[in-house]
Design a protein that fits this description.
It is a single chain. By secondary structure, the protein is mostly beta strands. The chain has eight helices and 42 strands.
Amino acid sequence: MNNNKSTYFKHSLLAFAIMGVMSSAANAEDEKPKAQKSADDIERIVVTASKRAKGLQESPVAITVVSSKAIEQAKVMDITDLQTLVPTLRVTPLQRSTNTNFSIRGFGNGTNNTGIEPSVGVFIDGVYRSRAASQIGDLPRLQQIEVLSGPQSTLFGKNASAGVISVTTREPAYYQEGKIEVGVGNFNQKEIKGYYTNGITDNLAFSVSGGLNKRDGYTESVVGLDDINDRDRWNIRGQALYEPTEDVKLRLIADYSKIQEACCTVENSINGPTTGAVRALGGMDLDETDSFAYQSTLNSNPDNNVKDGGVSLQLDVDFDGYSFTSISAFRTNDSDFMNDVDYTSLDILNESGYTDIETITQEFRLTSTGERQLEWMFGAFIFHEEVTTGDTLYYGNDIRNYFDVLMAAGGAPGLLAGVEGVYGLDPGTFFSGDSAVSSEFEQENDAYSIFASFDYHISDDFTAIFGVSYTNDQKEINITQQHSDVLSALDLDTVPTLYGVPIGSIPQLAPAVPVIKSLQFLPPMLGLPNAVENNQSDDSKTTWSLRLAYEINDNVNIFATAATGFKATSWNLSRYSSPFAADQSALETAGLALPNQVYGGRYASPEEAMVYELGIKTQFEHGSFSATIFDQTIEGFQSSIFIGTGYVLANAGKQSTQGIEFDSNYNLTEDWSFTLAGTFLDPVYDSFVGASGLNGPVDLSGEKPAGIHEVSITAGIVYNFEVFNGADGYVRTDYLFESDTKLAENTPESLSREVNTFNASTGLAFDNGVSLQLWVRNLTNDEYLLSAFPPPIQAGSFNGYPNQPRTFGANISYQF
């Protein structure tokens, strides 16, 4: 850490230590004798971070809880919007509706390379959602959302090495209750959603909920096609609650959702040397000086479809001194897409693809009940998943002309036709509009974990919590490819010959060979399994956590944590899946190496996380304050970088982050409440040799990782008031700040993002059940890029994803 950063963090830690002391002092000053305390003074928030119901104040975990009331008031439509309330969380939607990346404390991966499971685990009603495509639907009838920072592998198993997002919905009620809500907004938004719940008998209740969300796109096509970035999604969800006795409860949940949208807007951040070729052929591209004109030059409408559904059954049985829980789930997620991936009005490259996922999960838990000195929990988690995915890159009708213009501009007119002649190929063979590269991937994943947790109450105020988990994860991969790009399949180093002489050694032709090689951007991909490479991975790891919690008084708790995390091998299920360099000799000896064989890597080895935390939680009559200082590292962080036509997957030797996160709220009066939360990070690649940089492989050791904000702040103000007829009203504003950071490792430093976003809403709730709401997101029309990337076969150019512009609307609801 450099001196400036060191000083900065010392001051930050000192400031928050002072805030913690002040909070404690306020507690002591405001504290009443227990007998005089009103139950309404402190609202007790119950969380399930330890897989048993505990008060937030008593839970020795760095956790942020977002209530259903805050979500409704702030108009949080789905998990993507959640980051405006949780500064430690970042959610980045990218190329397609299925491509959303979650990170906590800067750690996270799981882009639209299907083989990479996220490092942040998402659970909805205790059921693990393995891919972003199954997580982005509109939020159901909520209880609350808990965001857990740091490794959570001990209790949450695989793929929680960076944290957990746990979504809890409400159980059906035994009395009649319902709500219907309709809304309209700019860009012709139309929204309708509702729920109904009631009891059928004294021990059987049900609920049903659903919603429809449609909106026109906010990006206009300049070539006369449809608008882009629309909303077109619906969902339905049903539940049944059966309690045959006081000690037995079954909860059945079934849900289905569908998305059919044109996503996502891409702008021109930097127009490189190839832009002239596009314009010479009459193509249109966007002005790089206006990234937020929200215009599109795509020559075909993008199409993104997602169908997600599943069923789960939770059984809870109370025995004398312990309880048993079983959660069984089956889920399917099917998605497909068609995108113009050259992002110009020319017909150069188009891509289509699909992903089908079937997941079966089973969890068992035995948990002690009642007050005892040693509380315990034993459990097991079983996971089975089958993934079938594929994509096809189609060469368009303009691709040959595009390369001919590039060659002419480079002083080599007619080069493609000349090389075709040398090879005896028909004119127009190279980059034919009939060429395509189709890749197919299959992955079967079986995993299980066995875990245990023990809470030992050393005294009434001091508790030690120890958890341990053993995880085994096995994957088997199959890869095939159909490749009809003739040029990329030619080995220019050995064949052909002209009068018995390799063309690379002929002075007149030798200078052309490097140029032609530069056009071989999609060499054939060697399939799996084969006689040399292993197509299976088998990983196992024991993780543990140790937490010490001390209750200073009724309102002040401190805790210390040391915990490990684990994420299994991720396979590269993209067109750049390639053998490791160590296999080159064996592949060549076996005659398996393809022409222009690429060597890089099939998979990224497991991630192993470690965190040390020191935290304080305070709660007093008018508010609360919590803070956590942490030192978190991930050995072998699985880095996935998009390089234009595929993903390079590699392990960073070590990535670490030191920092502090805090969360506070203060109720000035019964009508005014304030929230302030933030995360301060000092991220660094301690070791990362061979990373994908701007101009090829680089050594990023000692460098700050791209895409991680050093400072994230959220703040909110809510004013509650009462108007005529006893109607309750509120006005709310929320603010999100994220400091400037470089967008991606393989993009220029000039492409960065800083966020200063305000959201606001106001509403009235009448005694007759009618409520009105006005809302606006991105009130000041803050402009920033979500991420950036190099487009295919356009060296020197870079594209970015602009954020959503200001949206606003009005809702009316009736609750009974």
